[in-house]
Amino acid sequence: MEETNKLDILIGKIISGNASPEELQQAEDLRNQDPGITDFLAQSRKAWDNTRYFLSPEDYGSDKQLLGSKYSEFLFGKIWLVSRRVLIYRIAAILAFPVALAAGWYGFGKGFLRSSLASQVCVISSPPGNVSKTILPDGTWIWINTGSSVSYNTAAFNHGKREVQLTGEAYFQVSPDKGRPFIVETPHASVKVTGTSFNIKAYPDDPDFETVLAEGSVELSLKQADSRVIRMNPGQRIMYNSRNDSVNINEVDAEIYTSWRNMELIFKDASLNDLVRKLDSIYDIRFHLEPASLGDYRFRGMFRYNNNLIEALEKIKKTSGINYYIENKEVWLRIAK
Q1: First CA to last CA distance, the chain
Q2: C-alpha count within 13 angstroms, C-beta hemisphere, residue 142
Q3: Architecture per CATH, 264-335
Q4: pLDDT, tens digit, for every residue of 42-62?
């Protein structure tokens, strides 16, 4: 463990620019002893450089100094809150690979390193009421909607297998690489691209799978529906229902389906059922419609994630005449009398 800590601190000093000539020579000696150290240092530097996208220049500078003294503790423990009600970035998720690599390198030897990395899974989650934004080691950006998560095997990803698993909803801006396709796996379908922007919604308790292509092209492989493969064009939306094995393809305004990544919900002729389902995911509250046919009401408007619940309910009331009643974490919507 002491050797691991020494390596952590040495790598941290090199990345932060605080390494002495003696420490730089020590790192060179380590690279000569084992060429794998070079890859480790490159991955660590790339992961650290990616954090500049989330910080002000002042915070980046101060954190760079801290990195030079307590590398692994800093990378694992630091969480930045950027406008608390808006975005949460867990930088430790991005940096899981290099730190895991350091933990296995000297402590247990190369055999343990390989088996350890084989089972190393990085999970990036977005808590209720927030949208998380992160960048993967290949440069791909992901916006993760409230209550959703993206996971991937760090060893496989860093060795060229660009594959992630999605639970919930996320928007992907994939870094181009024709030689290494980017694949998103969900329970009902997989999406394969080389460089494009698209949205996927695949909640585990929802029989409907949805993907909307903003730009570029994607190849959608349905896991049922006779294993059908569909190539999408920009502006297309594909809805797949796993209960009846049906597929619906139509042209849409992609901005409506991807506005959530800017902490906004845009509705154009949406049903009240759709609206309350979205609000439920943001505010983590249960809605009741009385009567149930109220769910067929059509709604047009925009909500912001950082609006409080009362503001959202008042907007519904003013535009539709529907009253609301709140008790604990439940909301009743009723036709105004």
Answers
A1: 70
A2: 31
A3: 3-Layer(bab) Sandwich (3.55)
A4: 666 655 555 544 444 555 555
